[in-house]
Design a protein that fits this description.
With about 150 residues, the protein is of the alpha+beta class. The chain has one domain. About 25% of the residues lie in helices and about 30% in strands. The chain contains two helices and six strands. Strands 1, 2, 3, 4, 5 and 6 form a six-stranded mixed beta sheet that branches. A hairpin with a 2-residue loop joins strand 2 (about 80-95) and strand 3 (about 95-100). The radius of gyration is 18 Å and the shape is globular. The N and C termini lie far apart (about 60 Å).
Amino acid sequence: MNIGSIGKVLANQALETTKKSVMDAVTGPDTKAKPPVPATSAAKPAAAGVDVGAIVLAQLQAMQKPLRDDQELQVWVRAAHEVLRVNEVFVPHHAVLVFSGMDNQGNVTRILLPAEQVQLVCKIVPVLTGFTARRVNVLTPKPRPEGPAGG
C-alpha cells in the first residue's frame, strides 16, 4: 500500500467519523432503539426513516472540512423568489432546516424549508487575495432526553 492509498483511507475514515457524529447529534442516541417503519406504509415517502436533514448537514461539513485557508465553500439556496448565499444553517427539528444569510439589499434573510425539499448549490471557490475565507456555520440542537420529566 503506497502513501497515497494510506492518505485516502485515513481521509475516508475521518469523513465517516464526522458524518456519524453529526447524525448522532441531530438524531439523538435513542434512534437505534425505535422499531423500523413498515415498508407497506403508503402515506410515508419512499425514504421513510431517513434523516434527510442530518445527511445534508453531514455533506456540508464534509465538503467544508478539507478546505484550505485560501478556499471557501459557497452554499446557495433558492425558495420562492429569494436566492440566498447561506452563512448559517440551523436545525430546530430534524425535519426542518433554517438557512440564514444576507439578501441582495443587505437584509438578514432566513429561509425555512422541510428537509426533504432542500436543494442547495455548493461551490468550492478560491478566496481573493487580502480576504479571509468564510465558513458556513452549522448549528445543531442538543439532544434532549426522551421520556417524562422526573420529579
